[in-house]
Every structure is written in structure tokens, then in C-alpha cells.
Amino acid sequence: MGRIRGKWIKNIAEKLVEQLPDKFSTNFDNNKEVLEELGIIDDKVVRNKIAGYIISVVEKKKS
């Protein structure tokens, strides 16, 4: 079994994609840079988890 993301990570990622849909893509490094520019999340591990989940959210919206 894989690791489970916390609901709070999912909520943050979904809200960010709703508010700024044109800034995020399926590119992890791009999402990481956008989150860093926004300055909302200071913790590197949490930022990476959110950037990774944003990929899933963007792919769901495309299909």
C-alpha cells in the first residue's frame, strides 16, 4: 500500500487550483516554484506534498 495524503493537504491543493488555475500544471517543478513565489507554505516537505497533489488535481480537471 502507498502513503496516504492528509485531507488538509488535499484541501489546500484543491483551493489553490480553484483560485489560480492558470498558474499550475502537471509539471512538479513548476508547481513547486509557484508555491514558493506565493510564500504561503514555509515547510519544504509540505510544499512538495502539495505540489505533487496539485498534479493530480490538474489532471482530474482536464479529463
Structure characterization notes:
The chain starts with 6 loop residues before the first helix and ends with a helix. The chain has one domain (7-62): Orthogonal Bundle (Diphtheria Toxin Repressor, domain 2), CATH 1.10.60. Helix content is 68%, strand content 0%. The protein is globular, with a radius of gyration of 11 Å. It is mainly alpha-helical and 63 residues long. The chain has helices at residues 7-19, 28-38, 44-62.
Question: Helix and strand succession?
Answer: HHH
C-alpha termini separation: 26 Å
Q: What is the alpha-carbon Rg in Å?
A: 11 Å
When the domains are counted, the total is: 1
- Under CATH, the topology can be stated as Diphtheria Toxin Repressor, domain 2
Largest sheet: none
Determine the CATH superfamily: Ribosomal protein S17
Structural class of the secondary structure composition? mainly alpha
Spans of at least 5 consecutive residues whose pLDDT stays below 50 are none
Strand content: under 5%
Q: Please report the total strand number as a whole number.
A: 0
Global morphology: globular
CATH classification class? Mainly Alpha
Provide the residue-averaged pLDDT. 94
Q: What CATH architecture label applies?
A: Orthogonal Bundle
Treating each run of at least 4 consecutive H or I residues as one helix, how many helices?
Answer: 3
Q: Fraction of residues in helices?
A: 55-70%
